[in-house]
Specification:
Low-confidence stretches of chain A: 420-429
Number of strands of chain A: 13
Order of helices and strands of chain A: EEEHHHHHHEEHEEEHEEHHHEEEHHH
Mean pLDDT of chain A: 92
Helix content of chain A: 40-55%
Largest interface: A-B, 72 and 63 residues
Strand content of chain B: 5-15%
Largest sheet of chain A: 3 strands, antiparallel
Low-confidence stretches of chain B: none
Radius of gyration of chain B: 19 Å
Oligomer: heterodimer
Largest sheet of chain B: 5 strands, parallel
Distance between the termini of chain A: 51 Å
Number of helices of chain A: 14
Bound molecules: iron/sulfur cluster
Chain lengths: 429, 257
């Protein structure tokens, strides 16, 4: 029996530092490790003792690609602890800034990190030589997403304007208006992107996953909803700890999260799509079917199409919000800190991002727990490789290695995010 | 034909935000790529071109024994080395660990500390190797990044003014948030580069660009105290994104009981 090892010492085109290790005995996979060696940054430890108003500026620094997700999840958790709910135009603006983040993050992944795999290029710059129009189109889309975040947040990375209770300053209708034209053009171009990725070639690969995402009664989910799955999970987010558990495995600096009842699960665009297809806008739905998708999709390689569809949805939604916007009287509502625990969960581009904070009566953090999307997908990624490799054993070593990398990139794993947490029970003598 | 200069981007403990700034240069990216060879940039490409590199951009702080070794290899392979961002330049937000008893801190966080190899402190790159230039900010300003890249490739000094955020506020005609609203603001001691972003959004600066050249942190603390800012709050103000930058570190320690 021949032994083979697939090793990728440094996974490229993902955020953060990771490696991949697959060991085969004959046709059988005997070991798969998604190794995460990104150094941990201890966020949950140093959040302790910080004032609630400082939390969003700190949690933003967990991830440069999706700072809004961390800001939003922590803000919702804090507001939940203090018994406050933000509604109306302020809530709409939060959806709007989330649209911006989805767009810039999804387009970055679709065109610059993932599409090169399907077309056989090492990166988007090489791809640009043969497909300049699609790379330039992607850059314009990304720029439009960044324009939303920059206008509402002050800048694209680590925005300064998002705060507990609302915003520091809200835009006028006039300030938002110039965005509209840019977004409408971009929406058309996003439809082109969906068509383009729909025409790629996909490995024939499907598994029976448990998809987990937020579900809201009337909207495609960003900030709120119940946590549901296609295998019967349906809980309030405050019940998270009763259903999910995190494990510390030796080969990874990131915890692996599983469902207590059933093990590995899948979060992110594909999960959202499968659980919330009915809530997409008509335009997004028809683009999805034109690209060959039905209401459900179990092929993780096709997540690239779903990301493009969600990008189109985000443009649609952003346009709708701006057209209906009335400037609120106040930029934020007031909060009274109290000793309490609060929960927040929002849909980061890569999937649910769960936060829990305990506060003392002055509003200082006593305890924090943050579960990023990548920790939750880690086991599913490893299981995908176990199933994928034997079916493609005939490929030569280079090609197989590349396909394995691509299978990891299906999840757009954000490795820096995944390692910021590593928090288990407190053990003190 | 002249070979294009080689650019490498390296990552240590960080959020990837600073290197993302390069990919966020939507209008300039293809132009930059035409002028230089992107020789090593794992976040963007599978391809790796061997060194030496004409310019290395280093993001992130040193937090593991392995990285403390690796930075020396990066230095050896680089003709010029520029640090980008608060992590690489001051130890970053993760330097908050430096103020705690490290061992206790680690056991708070890990159930299985043996699996983890981490240093007690998060330190800037310049604590380990010679650095040609430090670009501050969390994240860095992408216009400044383009300026730094082109300056180095043309053998000139980058033009990144060392004055405070206050000057940028004046230039933007912002009303001072301290004077008008009584909001504590680190602007007077913080390095310019953000174009006075926070005051423009009606909030105080929290120092994400780090200390300016010779900041008078003492005078600012005295002013904060007059405004009713308690010592505990003052410590937290200086102990943020750039907590381990010397002037901020000293000021926070001076108010810690
Ligand atoms: S300096 Fe800030 S933006 Fe840059 S890598 Fe560090 S945390 Fe991210
Ligand atoms: S915190 Fe200060 S330096 Fe950072 S963006 Fe705000 S004003 Fe600028």
């Amino acid at each position: 029996m021949k032994n083979r090892t697939i090793k990728v010492e440094y996974l490229a085109r993902v955020e953060g530092e990771g490696a991949l290790f697959v060991k085969l005995k004959g046709d059988e996979v005997v070991d798969v490790k998604l190794k995460i060696f990104e150094p941990p940054r201890f966020f949950e430890a140093f959040l302790r003792g910080r004032h609630f108003s400082e939390v969003p500026d700190i949690t933003a620094r967990i991830c440069g690609i999706c700072p809004i997700a961390y800001q939003m999840s922590s803000i919702h958790a804090i507001e939940n602890a203090f018994g406050v709910k933000v509604e109306g135009a302020l809530r709409a603006l939060r959806r709007l800034i989330y649209c911006g983040e989805w767009i810039e993050s999804h387009v970055l992944h679709v065109a610059m990190l993932h599409a090169p795999d399907f077309l056989g290029y090492a990166d988007a710059l090489q791809m640009a030589k043969d497909h300049p129009e699609i790379v330039q189109l992607a850059l314009r889309l990304k720029k439009a997403g960044n324009a939303i975040v920059a206008l509402l947040g002050g800048r694209e990375i680590h925005p300064v304007n998002v705060r507990v209770g609302g915003f520091y300053r809200v835009p006028t209708r006039r300030e938002l208006a110039p965005l509209l034209e840019q977004l409408k053009t971009a929406r058309d171009e996003a439809a082109t992107l969906v068509r383009f990725v729909g025409g790629l070639e996909f490995p024939d690969f499907e598994r029976d996953y448990e998809f987990v995402a937020l579900r809201h009664e009337s909207e495609y989910p960003f900030n709120e909803g119940r946590l549901v799955s296609n295998q019967g999970l349906d809980i309030d987010i405050s019940q998270y700890d009763a259903h999910f558990v995190e494990e510390h495995v030796e080969h990874s600096n990131a915890l692996q999260s599983t469902l207590k009842a059933r093990g590995a699960y899948f979060v992110g665009p594909l999960a959202r799509y499968n659980l919330n297809f009915d809530k997409l806008s008509p335009l997004a739905k028809s683009a999805a079917s034109a690209a060959g998708l039905t209401h459900t999709c179990n092929n993780p390689f096709k997540s690239i199409i779903v990301r493009a569809v969600e990008t189109l949805y985000a443009f649609d939604e952003a346009i709708r919000i701006i057209e209906n916007y009335e400037m609120p009287e106040r930029a934020a509502i007031d909060l009274e800190p109290q000793s309490a625990t609060g929960y927040g969960c929002t849909e980061a581009p890569r999937g649910i991002c769960f936060h829990r904070y305990k506060f003392d009566e002055q509003g200082l953090v006593a305890d924090a727990k943050i579960v990023p999307p990548t920790s939750q997908n880690q086991q599913t990624i490893e299981q995908d490789l176990r199933a994928f490799v034997p079916a493609h054993i005939a490929l030569d070593q280079n090609e197989l290695t590349w396909r394995c990398e691509q299978a990891v990139r299906n999840y757009d794993p954000c490795i820096s995010c995944a390692t910021h947490f590593l928090r288990l029970e407190i053990e003190r003598e | 034909m002249h070979a294009k200069p080689k650019l490498a981007v390296w990552k240590f403990a960080s959020c990837d935000g600073c290197q993302l700034s390069l990919l966020d240069c939507e209008d300039e990216l293809l132009a930059v790529a035409a002028e230089i060879e992107i020789a090593n940039f794992p976040e963007a490409s599978r391809a790796v071109v061997r060194g030496p590199y004409d310019l290395s951009l280093v993001e992130g702080s040193i937090t593991t024994p392995h990285d403390a070794e690796r930075i020396h290899q990066v230095r050896r392979a680089s003709k010029r080395l520029v640090t980008i961002g608060a992590c690489a330049t001051a130890g970053g937000i993760q330097a908050l660990r430096n103020f705690k008893d490290a061992r206790e801190f680690i056991s708070i966080v890990y159930a299985t500390p043996d699996y983890i190899h981490t240093l007690n402190k998060s330190t800037p790159i310049s604590d380990h190797v010679f650095v040609d230039f430090e670009l501050q900010g969390c994240p860095i300003n992408k216009t400044q990044l383009i300026e730094v890249i082109s300056a180095f490739l043309n053998n000139r000094k980058p033009n990144t003014p060392p004055h405070s955020v206050c000057i940028e506020c004046k230039r933007r005609n912002n009303v001072c948030v301290m004077v008008a609203r009584g909001t504590p603001c680190l602007g007077p001691v913080t390095h310019a580069g953000c174009d006075a972003l926070c005051p423009s959004y009606h909030r105080g600066c929290y120092g994400c660009f780090g200390p300016m050249e010779s900041p008078n942190t003492r005078a600012l603390s005295t002013q904060f105290a007059k405004m009713g800012v308690q010592d505990m709050e003052l410590v937290r103000l200086f102990r943020g994104i750039n907590a381990y930058a010397e002037p901020f570190r000293k000021e926070s320690e001076a108010h810690e009981k």
